[in-house]
Amino acid sequence: MNEPRGIIRLSVKVGQILLLGVKLQLLFLLFALRGAVVLGVFPALAACAKLILRRMEKRPDEVGALFGTARDTWPALYAEFRTFYQQAFWEMNGIGYLGLLAVAALVVDLAVNQAFLHSAVLQWGLIVLLVGVLSYWLYVLTIYARYQLHFWQYFRQALIISVAHFTNTLAIVIGSVAATALLVLFPALSLVALVPLYLTPTVWFSYQSCQRVEAVMHYAA
């Protein structure tokens, strides 16, 4: 039987990607609820990013696979998601809530300075710090999915890589804006693939930054 080509092959690949996105969305919701949302969201996000990253790092036998591979079936995805979710549970909650605390503290400081201190220098300093923390958020999921580091090293690595390739950081922001525009055009996507839609450009461009930094370090070594 001849393998489909052209527009038929493209349609099948798009359908395959959409189906994978729907499965990841369901897994995210299922495991976020398993952690009572408060403790489930961050490890579920990390697991979702891990699965997306692994599919960007396709093995040679998977390249060009038209109808996906055995690991994209629901039982295989569920087992893979659950394994990483369990491994990341406590550490990712620590990383996630420390990041949120930093954002909240900087926002409060900005509000206090604007209302009472009126210091332009302090205001710009706080804005720079806030941008740094938000940049950290754009990279930390991919850093956590790609490397095995000690707890505090994830923060340092995410900040270093976000600064090292600012163009990719900007590309992540543009990708997020594009994802938002797509959701406006097709609101139904928010019900079936919201998380993968935002995570995919984030993981892809942060993954490119990781590879470039790794290449520079390898060359320097």
Automatic annotation (TrEMBL):
InterPro entries recorded: DUF624
Ranges annotated as spanning the membrane: 26-49, 95-116, 122-145, 166-199
Keywords: Membrane, Transmembrane, Transmembrane helix
The organism's place on the tree of life at top rank: Bacteria
Protein name, entry field: DUF624 domain-containing protein
Native species: Schleiferilactobacillus shenzhenensis LY-73
